[in-house]
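re the bet — no i am not wrong, look at it urself. input seq straight from the record:
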Amino acid sequence: MPHGDAAIIVGMIRMLVGLGNPGPEYEATRHNAGFWWIDAVARELKATLRSERAYHGLLARVNLPAGPVWLLEPQTYMNLSGKSVAALARFYKIAPSEILVAHDELDLPPGELKLKQGGGHAGHNGLRDIHAQLGATDYWRLRIGIGHPGVRAEVVNYVLGRPMAEHREAIEASITRSLGALDALLAGDMGKATMKLHTAKPPRPKPPRPAELATPGAAAAARPAAPGAAVPVSAAVAPTPAAATPPAGGTATAPVADAAASSARGPH
């Protein structure tokens, strides 16, 4: 996408998706930044998210003058997010280019946002499954910076842990700032939205010290799961073959997998 071009006009965005893991134990973790964004959009549009089993997620419909817009938070755990997104897109005949997915981004510091269309999944398992289920990569992404722990071995605990107060404030401020671009995003005026999202350069918060990585959320994520318990897969974790096969008649859960080289990813 040619950043800075105010003439980038595409079709109306008909589906806004936020990625995260369900359950109160993960609500405040960095990996749920996409959920935080959808929650903020729902408040801005005065919409209420409700559980919809047919679409494996929390869903709200907002009727705008240009047509309905759907807000979606998949409840499938991160590595099966595409199951929810594709089910809704197929039923309402929503093209990939009419979908915007908000997700946590290790390669941006807390407080920064980037808008892009298409590209690879860069190791993010939520995006990986959306790629596979939609059969396309040209959907839009809103990358919400959460920062990087700086140590490859800490990535899984980091994304499944709670941000320090300064980082949480910076992420929330970026989400609030993004609401100023919401009208442009929904109208498909991506040039205008890009300028609003990318122009402001917030001060970069300090990176966490090693001791701050051991948050209660991270410690819980690091503990072995009880037999049969569901454990969310982080964006920096490669899926195992079992992760692609949900149990019959129930909500898919995600097993623990080995950490991938997330720190090797360059800016994208």
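see?? The CA atoms of residues 115 and 142 lie 5 Å apart. told u. also DSSP finds eight helices and seven strands in the chain. so pay up
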